[in-house]
């Protein structure tokens, strides 16, 4: 055996609350890597419902890497939620038309960019990730956190707004892990290393 089939929707037999996410999402602006899973208390179809304000006309993307773990009720707030903040009013007059359609002529709503989630990232229950945030490989987002700024690789953050709690490893180990990029290895090599990947001795990884 070389691990579960990455192209199956439900990798756990007789359990349909955990899915390999790439096989569930339908929106082309949500891009998900192999083996990333989503676990929902009710229905895995809730994932796309929790990607908020993802409008085609805005054009932003939610990009999630490989081997990520996403808990129930995690929310992603996309750029479609943004309003003007340096104007006298934040109200979106133009969307209602009827004489207000030119309210945004020569102006544009704030656009903070895509949300990018790295590889091997664990996002805890009910966390919220804001537009434009980049979360590095190996990061952990604590339950109920609101992430408004970028998260460095292999960093644990929590709170509202989320702040750094600690690094998962010393800097030299983080550097080596980022060089190894184990999530890009072929599945045979990953399978040979699963016991080492669940340990904490980087020198034991089979090259």
UniProtKB/TrEMBL annotation:
Keywords: Acyltransferase, Antibiotic resistance, Repeat, Transferase
CDD domains, sorted: LbH_XAT (cd03349)
InterPro entries assigned to the protein according to its UniProt record, in alphabetical order: Hexapep, Hexapep_transf_CS, Trans_hexapeptide_repeat, Trimer_LpxA-like_sf
Top-level taxonomic group: Bacteria
Stored Pfam families: Hexapep (PF00132)
Gene3D superfamilies (UniProt xref): Hexapeptide repeat proteins
Cross-referenced PANTHER family: ACETYLTRANSFERASE, ACETYLTRANSFERASE RV3034C-RELATED
Designated name of the protein: CatB-related O-acetyltransferase
Organism: Marivirga arenosa
């Amino acid at each position: 055996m070389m691990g579960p089939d990455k192209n199956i929707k439900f990798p756990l037999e007789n359990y349909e609350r955990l899915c390999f996410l790439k096989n569930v999402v339908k929106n082309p602006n949500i891009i998900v890597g192999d083996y990333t899973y989503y676990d929902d208390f009710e229905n895995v179809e809730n994932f796309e419902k929790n990607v908020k304000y993802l409008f085609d006309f805005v054009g932003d993307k939610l990009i999630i890497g490989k081997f990520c773990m996403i808990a129930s009720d995690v929310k992603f707030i996309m750029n479609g939620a943004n309003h003007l903040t340096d104007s006298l009013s934040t109200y979106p007059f133009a969307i209602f038309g009827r004489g207000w359609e030119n309210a945004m002529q020569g102006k544009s709503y704030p656009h903070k960019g895509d949300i990018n989630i790295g590889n091997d990232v664990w996002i805890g229950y009910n966390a919220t990730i804001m537009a434009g945030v980049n979360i590095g490989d190996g990061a952990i987002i604590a339950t109920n956190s609101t992430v408004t700024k970028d998260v460095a690789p292999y960093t644990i953050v929590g709170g509202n707004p989320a702040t750094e709690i600690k690094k998962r490893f010393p800097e030299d180990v983080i550097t080596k892990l980022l060089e190894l990029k184990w999530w890009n290895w072929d599945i045979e090599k990953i399978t040979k290393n699963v016991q080492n990947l669940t340990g904490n001795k980087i020198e034991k990884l089979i090259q």
